[in-house]
Write a structure and sequence with these properties.
By secondary structure, the chain is an alpha+beta fold. The chain has 2 domains: 2-60, no CATH class; 75-238, Porin (Beta Barrel). It is 18% helix and 54% strand. The strands form 2 sheets. Strands 3-4-5-6-7-8-9-10 form an 8-stranded antiparallel barrel. A two-stranded antiparallel sheet has the order 1-2. A hairpin with a 5-residue loop joins strand 3 and strand 4 (94-111). The longest helix is centred in the first third of the chain and has 27 residues, at 22-48. It is elongated, with a radius of gyration of 39 Å.
Amino acid sequence: MSQPVASMSQQLCREQHSPGTGLCRRLAALGTAVAALSFPLAASAQQYAPAGYQSAGYELASPEPQGQQELGELSFAAGLSLGFLRVQELGDVHRFSFIPSLVGFAYVPVLPRVYLRPGLRLGYSGLQQAQFSHGAGVEEHSLQGTAELGVQYDAWLVPALSVGGGAQRREIDFMGRGIVVDSDAIDRTEWLGLLYAQVGLGLPLWDGLLVIEPYARVQHTFSDARSLLQLGADITIGF
């Protein structure tokens, strides 16, 4: 804007008066003052005006908007969990009981890269039995179902923290061999509740299609203090 004002004042002097007259000097001084005032006003307008607005030859643009991360999409996964429950036997003897499970998860976005992860598990225990004498022993078989709720952060590695609970249907059978005859005197079926807290660290492969998540779980089974710690891994496929 400063250049047009100065040019107009000089041209007016040339057309109407000689350059040395007092009127021309006053017009030139006025043009210079207007130009000096218009420059900071134009700069201020350029800073605060909306994008795309143009005034007096200056293209005014608003500051660039800050980037915002979008929430992820609702998704699901299902697969197999391989768990090893540490069980205390008589005295100080401990063993690990293999517990395979079917597992399913839903991933609900709540913040950028943060998901709630509700899940269901259905597992079986009884593939491995405690050692007992050749003649007789007790076998345990159980089917357990649990529901859990976790929070996970989606990154190169996927940390997750979950809490859950459920029920376990356990069958106890007395088994006799050789001269020992089977007896149902101590056979029984019982229902037990359980609670657990679990921490895992997932490794996503093939753009997250396959996730392998090793985990450690602290577990409490009501009316059965033998089990406390379970280690394992969830192997799931997303869809």
